Hints:
The structure holds two protein chains of two kinds.
Chain A: H1 14-82, H2 90-106, E1 111-120, E2 123-134, E3 140-147, H3 150-153, E4 167-168, E5 172-173, E6 180-188, E7 198-205, H4 207-215, E8 223-227, H5 247-254, H6 257-267, E9 272-276, E10 287-294, E11 299-306, H7 311-358, H8 374-420, E12 431-438, E13 446-452, E14 457-465, H9 469-487, H10 493-505, E15 514-522, E16 527-533, E17 539-542, E18 545-548, E19 553-554, E20 568-571, E21 576-581, H11 583-586, H12 597-604, H13 612-627, E22 636-643, E23 651-654, H14 660-673, H15 678-698, E24 706-714, E25 717-724, H16 752-759, E26 762-768, E27 771-779
Parallel strand pairs in A: 16-19
Antiparallel strand pairs in A: 1-2, 1-7, 2-3, 4-6, 5-6, 6-7, 8-11, 9-10, 10-11, 12-22, 13-14, 14-15, 15-16, 16-20, 17-18, 17-21, 21-22, 23-24, 24-25, 25-27, 26-27
Helix pairs in contact in A: 1-2, 1-7, 5-6, 7-8, 8-9, 9-10, 14-15, 15-16
Chain B: E1 8-14, E2 17-26, H1 31-37, E3 45-56, H2 58-72, E4 77-81, H3 85-93
Parallel strand pairs in B: 2-3, 3-4
Antiparallel strand pairs in B: 1-2
Amino acid sequence: MMQLGKFKQSNHSLKFKLNISILTFVCVAFFSLAVFISKYSAPILKSQLDDNAQKSVATYVSDFSALTMYAEQVILNTKNTLNHTTEDNIEAIKVLLNSALKTVSYVDLDFANAWLYVFQPENVSVGELYISSIAKDDAINFKIEHINNLYDKFPWFKQVPKQERIYWSEPYVDDKTGKSVFTCLIPFKFANQQDFNGLLALTIDLSNIQKNISEFSFYETGKLILLSKSGLYVTYPDPDVALKSTIFDLSDKLNVPQLRYIGKELAAGRGGQIVIDDIPAFDGSSGVFFYAPIKHLGWSFCLVYNEHEFLKPIKHFQIMTFIALLVSVALLMLIINWICHYSTKQLLTLSHIAAQYGSGNFAHNFDFEPTSSEIGTLAEALSKMRINLLNYIEQERHSASEKQKHQSELEIARHIQKSALSTVYPKNEAFAIATTMIPAQRVGGDFYDFFFIDENKFAIVVADVSGKGIPAALYMMKALTLIRNISRSKMNLDFVFSEVNKQLEEGNDTCMFVTAFMAVIDLRNGETTYVNAGHNPPLIGKNKTFNFLQTKKNIILGINPHAKYVAETIKLQSGTHLFLYTDGVTEAENNKAKFYGEDRLLKIFQKAHDAPQENVDMLLADIKKFVKNNPQSDDITMLDFVYLEQSKFPLQVRADITKLQEVLRLLQNDMLRYNVSAQGQFDMVVAAEEIFSNIASYAYDNEEGMVEIKTSCADNIYSVSFKDQGKKYNPLKRQDPDTTSEIKEREIGGLGVFLAKKVSDTISYEYKDGCNILSIGINVDK
Amino acid sequence: MDENEKLQIEKIKQDDVLTCKLTGWLDPNTSPSLVSEIDLTDVKTLIFDLTKVEYVFSSGIRAFLILQKMLEKNGGKVRLINVAENIRNIFEYAGLESMIDS
């Protein structure tokens, strides 16, 4: 049988399992992708951010450099022109200053003013101040002030060197306008002077620059800070710090030593990048500082931004990924459910159909479109299975009915065969008979037969046809019919067998043959003719002494049409048995492959009974005991015939005890005629013995006398009557002996009649015409 | 002519036990030989094997009882073995089944 795959049973539906497995896979895939992108995109994003920061700072540095260098250029040009002007030429100075302001204002710088301070070289604290200032409407005002306290007005004035070099002041608040400004200064001298006469200055408003810087934002958290040469914050998000604290002040105040480091680096004219942890303004996150100096000015720009700024796009990406995941999962679930619904719907239909097929209902043929899908394959297989099953069932049905037909035909054959065998034993005073035939198969090749050829001649036959089954049975029927019909022609037995042989041979192409033994008994005198065609010799004997009958072995029947058969004769004595059988008896095989054998047959017949049926039963029981459970290999057939001389009763016999055994044996034989049972025979013999002994001992005292014994059988009662002419005596009236007393107290005599009363079924006494008549009866079926 | 079968008695003696294997009928003609042919000298237990006995009549029973009475004087007894079912019935009718060893 084909090994079927083991299915692991699960209570979950296909839909559930598909959902779980596919969704798990998708989630893992998305998650891995997200982690991968986060990990590898972070450095890229960070470097991009750093790049941007650096560029922003560089731009501001370059712009601010360009602006201040332009201012330096203007002031240098103006100074050079002053060198050719005399100090009394006020008009020329006015034109010069106005022109310088205008030039600078073209480049969109909002100057507070330009001024010229002229003093005597020997006393710088007293002098004239020429101021040119520009208004919002581009109108330029020029005025001259005379001032004495130079240092109060310009505290850093002392620091301006006398060399002709440009000096940039620290940023400060102009007390007239209140604006944050810083000033570019250079010493000058008029054309007519030897030594320098004063300072030329250009004051630049820082407001626009501050505004510009404070409006700048780098992403969300990034801030740009402008530091002066001394580290002073020119711009700062906190207005309390701008122009009031230096980077060093803040380093101490906030306890951030890295700020001092930045300050020193800038003072040394170096730029760079530094990360400072735990910036309060960034909620404790790290801050990234980009700083770059404005070299000719000594100032610097610093860009600060939250390091976690760059994580924002990643976070954003993660959120988007998560949303995409949710949407994908939802879509996938919809798709899976749809596929499952579609597939399982077909599967359910198929399983419903399969269940119907399983319960034997094949009516439902289904139309699945032939597809190459798994469902299509399954449907196709199911459809093929249906057709194959239908074919198979049809074949089975056909072969079953054939088988049944064959069986019933065999049954009929057996019935015909059985009915051909005689089963009713004729009731005849001259013999008793018993038979059996047990086929090894439903029909056998053995047969027995018995029939009257005429009123005095009785035929017994046992035969064995070669082979078994129907052919043997058919041939057996032919043989049986031939033997019976030809025997009735009343011809001699040798002729009968020759004729049977001839006719059996005709058309016997399959070379079947028959072995047979037949005997014809003349019931008047026991003269018996018998012929043996290759058959087992029968047993013959009486009184437990049996031997094999010596027979001439003629050729088997049905082979040679010219064969001659020789019959022999024997005279049977009264009580002599002829036991016929087939080789199914002697060749009955036990499980040690041993045959029952002729020796055992002969041995068991040394215990033979008088009644044929008892001998048949005895032998069958002994064969069964021998073969045990081994199956029967051949037909077993037996026929026991016992010849009985004509009844000797009524019998006149001397009332003498020596005649006892003779009388009892005659009674035994007589009972055979009436098929009295073994127990019945025994009881009758016991009763008759007691009655006859009683008469022999007491009826005639010591005189001689006769007893007349009659037998009869009616209504299943076999009766024997004893009639004597002795003295009148009714033994039935005698008191029964005490059978309950101890053995040693027993009287020796008096048991006989008591026993006769006990074993007989009827017992009666009458005295008639001077005769005692005692009758005993036995039930024949006892 | 005497057609009557003789009773055959096959005797085996071992110590004070005498076993007699009987073949034939135990009828009035044969039973007396049972008493006459068996020597009870030094016999305490007399066993009769009835395997090959077809019939036991009252005369046979009588013979067993006589032997029993003879043995009783010396405290001996008669036992019967291998008794066929129908013969056993006879002993039962006579109330003597106690003589049979089953």
